[in-house]
Design a protein that fits this description.
The protein is of the alpha/beta class. The protein is built from 14 helices and 15 strands. The protein has helices spanning about 40-55, 65-75, 80-100, 100-105, 125-135, 150-165, 180-190, 210-220, 230-240, 250-255, 255-270, 285-295, 305-310, 340-350, and strands at about 1-5, 5-10, 15-20, 25-30, 115, 115-120, 140-145, 170-175, 200, 225, 245-250, 275, 300-305, 325, 325-330. The model has no long low-confidence stretch (mean pLDDT about 95).
């Protein structure tokens, strides 16, 4: 089980995997990774892909990604994960056809690897600390502690233990996933600041924008907005009202790589740095997110693409998702950069639509 302020994930996750084939024999892959309490349900995303987005793709030119994503937004409202899957499959195809990795299609890489963050979210904190220490030994330095589900006193004890058992260069981030009660937030977060976190993520519900802005003004620690920023319009409001110091970029909540870069561009114009978040993704979506961060200077606070390697029973990639010395290595092969194991996809499939 993984615990978050807004909900738990236990046992398994259900994703929609998109296989997109061209008449010239190129195959592109996409991954829609919804979370019912955050963005939507798997059933809704499968329906969006099959009923509304599939007709846009039949006979289409895969190189017209911007137009196809514009059409997708007008074909069905919401369902950002389905749109993200569609877009990454298109980019995978175009990259393979062009002989270029997706990061080069997005303007070229500005970094060759990305610091990896691991989320401390196991209700068994002893087990989580064993994992944290192991990963620290493998080179990871970024750790994001999920809070807001066990009570304030318990959260502080976990932070104290983290600081006492890890070396000083262990970078602690705190993520409430909207789990705080607004009227208690500032008082409790001043206690949290004693443990010197790099940032505090989404302490209050995403729609409590005025409260988030008040918290941001009250704290010395930077506040990162996640559930408050789904669209470029949301980012514009955060920037204009200075609701947060930082923003989490997730292609699953924005509806793709291009939309995520639009959010980052608005943030950059306002002096707001960004972090590479994710949902409960396979390595396919991790690769797409990696290429976005590689090509976007403002997404500078690391990424959390750890599930494929550390939590899935088996990922869907033919080779392990590339993590070396605590950093995600940006692939250099064309397209997304790592082949998908189709036999594995078939093995785990519970339903197939054509």
């Amino acid at each position: 089980m993984r615990r978050h302020g807004s909900g738990d994930v236990a046992g398994s996750v259900k994703n929609a995997i998109l296989k997109l084939e061209t008449d010239s024999g190129i195959t592109g892959w996409g991954d829609a990774a919804p979370w019912a309490v955050f963005t939507g349900t798997i059933e809704a995303n499968v329906a969006a892909l099959h009923v509304y987005l599939r007709p846009l793709l039949i006979g289409a030119d895969p190189f017209r990604i911007e137009q196809l994503m514009f059409d997708a937004d007008h074909a069905v409202v919401g369902h950002p994960e389905a749109k993200a899957a569609m877009e990454m499959a298109l980019f995978d195809i175009v990259g393979q056809a062009s002989g270029l990795p997706v990061a080069e299609l997005l303007g070229g890489r500005c970094r060759d690897d990305i610091p990896l963050s691991f989320s401390v979210a196991d209700p068994d904190f002893d087990r989580d600390m064993e994992m944290v220490k192991r990963l620290y030994g493998e080179g990871l330095r970024l750790f994001k502690m999920k809070t807001g589900f066990a009570g304030h006193a318990a959260d502080l004890k976990r932070m104290e233990r983290f600081r006492s058992e890890l070396p000083a260069d262990a970078d602690l981030r705190i993520d409430y996933n909207q789990g705080m009660v607004t009227h208690d937030a500032i008082r409790q977060l001043r206690d949290v600041e004693a443990f010197k976190p790099t940032f505090i993520e989404q302490p209050v519900p995403g729609h409590h924008r005025a409260a988030l802005a008040e918290i941001t003004r009250a704290l010395d620690t930077p506040v990162l907005a996640d559930e408050s920023v789904f669209s470029p319009t949301d980012a514009l409001r955060v920037a204009a009202e200075r609701m947060a110091d930082l923003v989490s970029i997730k292609i699953m909540k924005h509806g793709g790589m291009l939309a995520g870069r639009k959010v980052s561009a608005i943030c950059e114009a306002a002096g707001i740095a960004c972090y590479g978040g994710d949902m409960f993704e396979t390595g396919i979506a991790h690769l797409a997110g990696t290429h976005v961060i590689a090509a976007t200077p403002n997404i500078s606070l690391g990424c959390e693409f750890y599930q494929a390697k550390y939590f899935l029973e088996r990922d869907l990639l033919a080779e392990p998702f590339p993590i070396v010395n605590g950093r995600v290595v940006v692939p250099r092969a064309p397209g997304l950069g790592v082949a998908v194991d189709e036999d594995r996809v078939k093995h785990y499939a519970v339903e197939t639509l054509k």
